[in-house]
Design brief:
This protein folds into three domains: about 180 residues, FAD/NAD(P)-binding domain; about 170 residues, 2-Layer Sandwich (D-Amino Acid Oxidase, Chain A, domain 2), CATH 3.30.9; about 140 residues, Orthogonal Bundle (Helicase, Ruva Protein, domain 3), CATH 1.10.8.870. The chain has 20 helices and 20 strands. The strands form three sheets. Strands 3, 4, 5, 6, 11, 12, 13, 14, 15 and 16 form a ten-stranded mixed β-sheet that branches. Strands 1, 2, 7, 8, 9, 10, 17 and 18 form an eight-stranded mixed β-sheet that branches. Strand 12 and strand 13 form a beta hairpin. Helix 2 crosses helix 10. The structure holds flavin-adenine dinucleotide (FAD). Flavin-adenine dinucleotide binds next to helix 2, strand 8 and strand 16.
């Protein structure tokens, strides 16, 4: 039903991985891997997706969360990349995930009179037209006064006028989870806490992988006609397991975002600001703004990239150039850092490296895909599965994912129209029903069903009013959450949306998980302790001036899951 990923499915998936001979084994549960599993399953292939940590725990929960064509690529005259991305944006907004992907406006302040309006205006008109059907409002021109009417936060001397254009946004972690659940709905085995630690070779080809359950340490071999690595910044590590020479290298570029409360920036619209090397977004995010991002080389820990004081200072410095009321450290509620998996190119400037993706088949039975961006995950996924064709026992059918709505999409529009009625039925405020519909779509009834027996589930999570206890429970029963960290950082975004960064909710959320997972009190205490240590280490890292010192401070916290791709495991 609906691709449920609960504890029973988790246990069963381990057995299935050992018993079934698969067509395709996908490694990596970010958006690319989840997309590849969905693409394969809906082409009629038998497929499994294994993720070492949690779904979207890598880059796919730490992005700017935009489905966009990328104005920078437009400026670089990369029209095909922009057109492709805008086509995906439209598909998400209309057919595949209208419950998760929403329109978002951006104001582009103009600095100079004359040519700049013509130049930017022409670019944005092209952006509107490349975007195809009129799903989103078209670009509008504003005088300085008009722009400040919708964005009073802007200093009068920061602009001479402005344009406003539209893109789309989604909660990336929730979207990736929904793609993975949709894959499961069509038969894919989906298992988290399952790390590929070796590739099995026979007569010069890859015929499967050795996997390790990072919770128990158990290992087994999974047989598959093709192994597809969708491991983002870990791509080189997984290729190294094959013993073959990689066809491309992936570089990591760190991007940091700040989260600040909505009332700190008086504006009805998001903003895009030019920086010396790139752009800075101020993005509406529920009751908050996301301000980001940075773009710097990163060669330290890949699982837990750390934001430094320098990153935070840079972002404050950039955004404060245009704000009437400058932001201070005290305004910052959350900070998150992610790593862009960039294909290594000739230029040393990471912001110049290509966002396009590449697929390689370094040896028979092994396909690697890397690069790209979140927006084009569906295209990347189809390309990766296409590349397995020579390794499969039968001809590959066409990709159909453009026709396959994600779980929760079907019936969403009808439920939106019935929001008042649903609010009455569950005794919830209407805003809460809309919030739930935008997170779960038509799965809302499944999320709230246990509250019939246990009305306390309709109460908000302590110290995190935006979420209901029922959502936490659902994270464990249906959404593959295995740890407190999964619930606070990705099933909900309490870790970046509250000043306590989830610590004040940890015990209550742990108790809700314990009910389903059968945790004893000492296990709850251990989960809370690990989570508190993570938050403390992140806070400490954000005080450090350099990447090296920030990384060292962050790594003092124990890992929720002990993984070791590319490094010797010491157990
Ligand atoms: C700051 C920032 C902002 C961005 N903003 C945007 C944006 O607004 N719009 C956009 O389109 N794109 C954006 N991007 C890019 C986008 O987020 C990434 O391209 C995308 O999320 C990459 O997804 P992925 O699945 O390839 O990698 P990941 O999400 O990193 O997934 C790889 C997964 O592989 C797993 N893994 C690794 N090794 C193993 C193993 N041995 N066994 C099992 N699992 C393994 C990891 O745990 C990880 O979960 C942004 C990126 C950053 C960093």
């Amino acid at each position: 039903m609906h691709g449920r990923l609960g504890p029973t499915e988790h246990a069963r998936a381990w057995t299935r991985l050992g018993e079934e001979r698969l067509d395709v084994l996908v490694v990596g549960g970010g958006v690319t891997g989840a997309g590849a599993a969905l693409d394969a399953a809906t082409r009629g292939l038998s497929v499994a997706l294994v993720e070492a940590r949690d779904l979207a725990s890598g880059t796919s929960s730490r992005s700017s969360k935009l489905f966009h064509g990328g104005l920078r690529y437009l400026e670089q005259l990369d029209f095909s990349l922009v057109r492709e991305a805008l086509r995906e944006r439209e598909l998400m907004l209309t057919r595949l995930a209208p419950h998760l992907v929403k329109p978002v406006p951006f104001l582009y302040p103009l600095q100079r009179l004359g040519w700049e309006r013509l130049y930017v205006g022409a670019g944005l008109t092209l952006y509107d037209n490349l975007g195809g059907a009129n799903v989103l409002p078209r670009t509008r021109h504003f005088s300085r006064r008009g722009a400040r009417a919708i964005c009073p936060a802007l200093r009068p001397d920061a602009l001479v006028g402005a344009l406003q254009y539209w893109d789309a946004q989604a909660d990336d972690a929730r979207h990736t989870l929904s793609v993975a659940r949709t894959a499961a709905r069509y038969g894919a085995v989906v298992r988290t806490s399952t790390e590929v630690v070796g590739l099995v070779r026979d007569a010069g080809r890859v015929v499967g992988a050795e996997v390790r359950d990072v919770e128990t340490g158990d290992r087994q071999v999974v047989r598959a006609s093709a192994v597809v690595s969708c491991t983002g910044v870990w791509t080189d590590d997984v290729e190294a397991l094959s013993g073959s020479r990689g066809r491309f290298n992936v570089r990591a570029s760190k991007g940091v975002h700040l989260v600040v409360p909505r009332d700190r920036i008086a504006s009805e619209t998001g903003m895009i600001l030019r920086t010396p090397t790139s752009v800075l977004f101020v993005i509406p995010w529920g009751q908050h703004w996301l301000v980001g991002s940075t773009d710097t080389d990163w060669n330290l820990n890949l699982a837990h990239p750390a934001a430094s004081r320098a990153d935070i200072d840079y972002l404050l410095g950039q955004v404060n150039q245009v704000l009437v009321r400058p932001l201070t450290y005290d305004d910052i509620v959350g900070v998150f850092a992610g790593l862009r998996p960039l294909l290594a190119g000739e230029s040393d400037e990471t912001s110049q490296l290509s966002r396009e993706h590449a697929v390689a088949r370094p040896m028979p039975g092994l396909v690697t895909i890397a690069g790209g961006k979140y927006t084009t995950y569906r295209v990347m996924a189809a390309d990766a599965i296409e590349a397995t064709a020579p390794d499969l026992p039968r001809p590959l059918t066409e990709s159909v994912t453009a026709e396959v709505p994600l779980v929760g999409a079907e019936g969403y529009a009808a439920l939106v129209n019935q929001a008042d009625h649903l609010a009455d039925e569950y005794g919830l405020p209407v805003w809460r029903v809309h919030h739930l519909l935008d997170r779960y779509g038509s799965l809302l009834e499944e999320v709230l069903a246990p509250a019939e027996e246990d009305p306390a589930l309709l109460q908000p999570v302590p110290a995190a009013d935006g979420y209901l206890a029922a959502e936490v429970r659902y994270g464990v029963t249906h959404e593959a959450a295995l740890h407190l960290d999964d619930l606070l950082a990705r099933r909900t975004r309490i870790s970046i949306e509250t000043e306590h960064r989830g610590v004040a909710s940890a015990e209550a959320v742990g108790a809700l998980a314990a009910d389903v997972l059968g945790w004893e009190p000492d296990r709850v205490a251990a989960e809370v302790e690990v989570y508190q240590a993570r938050v403390a280490a992140e806070r400490a890292s954000q005080e450090e001036a350099t990447d090296q010192a920030a990384d060292a401070a962050r790594m003092l916290a124990p890992d929720t899951r002990r993984c070791g791709v590319g490094r010797a495991l010491d157990d």
